[in-house]
């Protein structure tokens, strides 16, 4: 089955307006907000496979736009060029430009006008870390609040801006199990930075909507797919929103009657509040769709327990599955989790396969070459 988009498929430039049917909080009572979304794809011609992602084109929050205009000293009624169209600055800020997350280039351009010694110092190559620290928790508005510029015109202002980038989300449903639908699992970004409440553009855009049409398109990922041979065992490691593609994998393997064994490692903060799709996963385990389900709750006890700790506890079985040709999948946080899971995998291969560190590394590299170790990390 091919799911490659053709020239008429919805795309980043020509997205499909998909009605958002369901917006459900999965983490009642938790300190974090993770939501389940269901979109309608009827008449879109969009056909995806488990492992693909959905691109979403958000709109900037009207309060964020108003705050930024106020800080810059513009009304929003000024006419500007956005892409190949002329529109009001207000419309351009809400739908066309990115106007929160900062980049070094933006600060550089801003400082060509602001001429601040502080920013100039931060922009020096030797001060890369200090610049990162400055940028963490700050947004574009903070430049204008901390380094006020009087009389900036709209054209100069938009010269600092980049077009809004779509956000990708790993698809959490199997199309065969949910015809005409696509599901997502989204961690809503909310934090306090530099003394102000902030929110992620796209995750909060989705969190604050239901019933509306959302511009989206498919982003196929041929490097993160179920094996064609349904007899092969699979091992899935997906804490937090990393569960998303694995919900799709399990649904697909179930509906296709694939006989290969399925093993899921899932984890999050607390079992009582953060067990994403807990009822579904427990039912899959009860019914034998999931042969193994290992759960790591990081905040239910004093010491942290993560998915890689659970992998180590089951290292003999995990090695045996790998010997049986299992495909090893990882999805979720790229910065820490995926690196630590990679370390744990290498340790298991070394210990259970009685290999030197070097040989274990080569063995894992071999898995990657044979496309038996696949990652969807962000
Ligand atoms: C292939 C792929 C698949 C993905 N799948 C999923 C998925 O299934 N589910 C999911 O939830 N996400 C997923 N993501 C991530 C997703 O694309 C977005 O990056 C995420 O939702 C944040 O986007 P946003 O617009 O809400 O936040 P943005 O507006 O882009 O803001 C994020 C920025 O805010 C800042 N920030 C965030 N937290 C803090 C903090 N605590 N302190 C200071 N600054 C902070 C950082 O600068 C960060 O870069 C995936 C990404 C990729 C590339
Ligand atoms: N700013 C926000 O409000 C917010 C909220 C949610 C997610 N996010 C961001 O969104 C991304 C995805 O979030 P998510 O909900 O999918 O997952 P996540 O926040 O990365 O957490 C999922 C689980 O993974 C654990 N974890 C932390 N470090 C780990 C490591 N080194 N190895 C293995 N597990 C580890 C977490 O434990 P602990 O957290 O207890 O250490 C938690 O139990 C992350 O990059 C995260 O930073 C931001």
Topology:
Blueprint: E1 16-25, E2 34-40, E3 53-56, H1 62-72, E4 79-82, E5 85-88, H2 89-96, E6 97-98, H3 104-114, H4 117-122, H5 128-135, H6 140-146, H7 154-158, E7 162-163, E8 167-170, E9 181-187, E10 190-193, E11 196-199, H8 201-207, E12 213-219, E13 234-237, H9 244-255, E14 262-268, H10 271-274, H11 278-286, E15 292-297, H12 307-313, H13 315-323, E16 327-332, H14 337-352, H15 357-369, E17 373-377
Parallel strand pairs: 13-14, 13-16, 14-15, 16-17
Antiparallel strand pairs: 1-2, 1-12, 2-9, 3-8, 3-12, 4-5, 6-7, 10-11
Helix pairs in contact: 1-6, 12-14, 14-15
The structure holds flavin-adenine dinucleotide (FAD) and NADP nicotinamide-adenine-dinucleotide phosphate (NAP).
Flavin-adenine dinucleotide (FAD) binds at residues 53, 100-101, 136-137, 167-170, 185-187, 189, 191, 193, 200-203, 241, 244, 376, 378.
Structure description:
With 378 residues, this protein is an alpha/beta fold. The chain has three domains: 16-54 and 170-219, Translation factors (Elongation Factor Tu (Ef-tu), domain 3); 62-163, NADPH-cytochrome p450 Reductase, Chain A, domain 3, CATH 1.20.990.10; 234-377, Nucleotide-binding domain of ferredoxin-NADP reductase (FNR) module (Rossmann fold). It contains 15 helices and 17 strands. The chain has helices at 62-72, 89-96, 104-114, 117-122, 128-135, 140-146, 154-158, 201-207, 244-255, 271-274, 278-286, 307-313, 315-323, 337-352, 357-369, and strands spanning 16-25, 34-40, 53-56, 79-82, 85-88, 97-98, 162-163, 167-170, 181-187, 190-193, 196-199, 213-219, 234-237, 262-268, 292-297, 327-332, 373-377. The strands form five sheets. A six-stranded antiparallel β-sheet has the order 8-3-12-1-2-9, with helices on one face. A five-stranded parallel β-sheet has the order 15-14-13-16-17, sandwiched between helices. Strands 4-5 form a two-stranded antiparallel sheet. Strand 1 and strand 2 (34-40) form a beta hairpin. Helix 12 runs parallel beside helix 14. It is globular and about 70 Å long. The structure holds flavin-adenine dinucleotide (FAD) and NADP nicotinamide-adenine-dinucleotide phosphate. The site of NADP nicotinamide-adenine-dinucleotide phosphate has 24 residues, from strand 10, strand 14, helix 12 and helix 14.
